[in-house]
Amino acid sequence: MSEPILTLTGVSKTFPGVRALQNVSLALRPGSVTALIGENGAGKSTIVKILTGIYTPTEGEIRVAGEPKSFASPRDAWAAGIAAIHQETVMFDELSVAENIFMGHMPVGAGRLVDWSEMRAKAAALLKRIDAEIPPEFKLKRLSVAQKHLVEIARALSHEAQVVIMDEPTAALSANEIDDLFRIVAQLKAEGRAVVFISHKFDEIFRIADDFVCLRDGDKVGEGPLSDVTEPQLVRMMVGRPVDQVFPKRDVPIGGVALSVRDLSNATEFADVSFDLRKGEILGLYGLVGAGRTEAMQGLFGITPLTRGSVTLEGKPLSIRSPADAIHAGISYVPEDRQEQGAVLSLGIRENVTLANLVKHVRGLFLSRPSEQDETRRLGRRLAVKAANWEQRLGELSGGNQQKVVIAKWLATRPKVIILDEPTKGIDIGSKAAVHDFIGELAGDGLAVILISSELPEVMGLADRILVMKEGRVVDEFQRGKWSAEAIVGAATGARKEAA
Amino acid sequence: MNAPISPPPETRYTVLDAPRRGIRDVLMRWEVILVILLAATTVVNTMVSPYFLDVFNLADATFNFSEKAIIALAMALLILVRQIDLSVAAIVALAAMGIGYAAEAGFGPGALFAVGIGIGLACGVFNGLLVTGAGLPAIVVTIGTMSLFRGLTQVVLGDQAKTKYPQEFLDLGQSYFIKMKETGISWLFVPPVPLSFLIFLVLAVLFGIVLHKTATGRKLFAIGSNPIAARFSGIPVDRLTFLLFMVSGILSGLAAALLTARLGSMRSNIAIGWELDIVTMVILGGVSIAGGVGSILGVVLAVFVLGLVTFGMSLNNIPGQVVSVYIGALLIAVIAIPRIVDRLGLRKPAG
What we know:
heterodimer, A: alpha/beta, Rossmann fold, 2 domains, six-stranded mixed sheet, 22 strands, 33% helix, disordered C terminus, B: mainly alpha, ABC transporter involved in vitamin B12 uptake, BtuC, two-stranded antiparallel ribbon, 1% strand, globular, disordered N terminus, repeat (chain A), ABC_transporter-like_CS (chain A), transport (chain A), AAA+_ATPase (chain A), sugar transport (chain A)
């Protein structure tokens, strides 16, 4: 086996009060793909940030090709031949592809001016090397996410990077685009580069990676060739507890009609959305991205203006013009975009939990801190939020824990109807299971639940009934036990009857 | 697809109610920095001038900043929610002109204050409508209304001055609210307090309570931190923003009445350039221009620091331009030092 190109020995990283990484060692070999796996918050991003010079380790040693190195800045990491391709691309939308590739090391000609023709030619050559048909003079904003990843790879190649880190590169890609990406990974491997591949998707990991390193709570809990392990073994390693049933669907008695929605319409996004929702029922809302599910539910919640439609809750007609009206009536909406719409990252957990129902904590004229703390403790424990203290800023928590706090905020409003919009998007597998379990619990408590999800197994696993939306309209309805994945996807994509 | 697993065991960790705070966390609080700055200003001024620590001199000194400080309270809330009102000084001018005309028409002191506050309120409503109704950026709107209100005053007044005011009105602005001899108890020391300063203190306590102790205050912090999430949480973002512009107008109108009563005359250039002095108070007070961070205590301390610096320097006959240089340097230093300390890793990294 070849000598490692990069080794970490006994690397730790601590922040005040938080131990992000504890005594982790790993070795990357040329010509191999190492999968870095672990739940969100396990320490994967910390390793990426140490390797790319954003964090300096508190303890431990980094060696590149046997030489001890310390990276004071991302520039040092580039110089040492380490390049990262990030989950959300960090590049310059208004600049050309060629400029993005050569940012920081543009070829210069006479008089220290940028040699544009050389830069374009070099960029074209790099893109050709990875079979990417992207004109170097295009502005970056014209490209798809997949194409941007290719530009990032070209940028890594332009640095002659020996170590390429890919942090969830497939998160926003289609199946074909993933195939293209994997072809390029194989090529990087064949050229003798070391690739670090981070993904939550096990099929991808088993398809592309040779070795794995598994982290949990900042510790390395396993490593070795992937051929030696099975998927359930890896999952157990990641979460540190045994495997059981997928999506345990609870038996919940379904009560009377809670919510009736009729002809909900908006000028552009959705039209004539009608359904009834019963107490204890989980109604799945499935459809392709852009089918109008989020918009219709935000219309119901008073965010998106309605042109038409009526909403009745427990027999009482509602007039919802703002989220405050909806909350007051007993409707909660957990938004899809956690960072922007759900969480207030710079406020603490307590302040987030009580935000949508502050009136409950007002004593006389003032907010009562003990009352807020009681509520936060109660809901925080119920959702198993992991934090140092309840005053900790939300931005310091992992994505999964942020989502639990956001859900806690909505439960604090004591809703009768809760709308969950992609509640498990981008959160780790442990939190995901906790959220799934919790959705079942909510229905068990008699809440009426609407679950928007683009993950078919999630909707099929949890819902009692599924509505399929397409182009702003409800096109089909399926009952539990009488559905098939093919029929649901068929309805969502319009495979059965194409409307021109 | 998703790997099957069971939910995490209930509690293998305990979550504290509040963080354990080290002495460093306390010392690095912005308010503590301001207190140190205030103490240093007092010590230096006392050493340089024997007249500095004189109660009557200090009371007189408050005249010079109290009106601005009143407006700074509203500005602090606006900046906290990511807005700004640069038209405040122009509102003062427009309101002061209204007071001038009303005084000539024979109105009494109460009515003159009402006229000032009413004009301020109207200006605030105008700003608020443009920002929340039309969705325009506050900085653009209020730069516009700054020119508009000031220009209106200049067009109407030309180089004319308004100098006729009822004596009771002038008394309000030029005398102390509490006079030494009125207390009647010789051993009880009650310092002389000008009306404008007293109003500032009362409003500061009121604003502090609203911002830090009530649900409304929490909502303002949420809006400043993330206006979108705030809206999704049922907070009436536009209504509160509109309300703050109204408050800014009202306090500017009130300041106009106090200022006119103190000066006993007004021209169209009254309070010119105040908007930036007020923004300086707020920023030095630790309110983040990015929104979501700040305290009324910080703003009050900053008002005192700036007031005493200006007063001390004027006692020593240091010209106004030098005071301006000093304040500029102070602002930059106080803003920069915590960042530099952060870089050196002495403080907990933010986020």
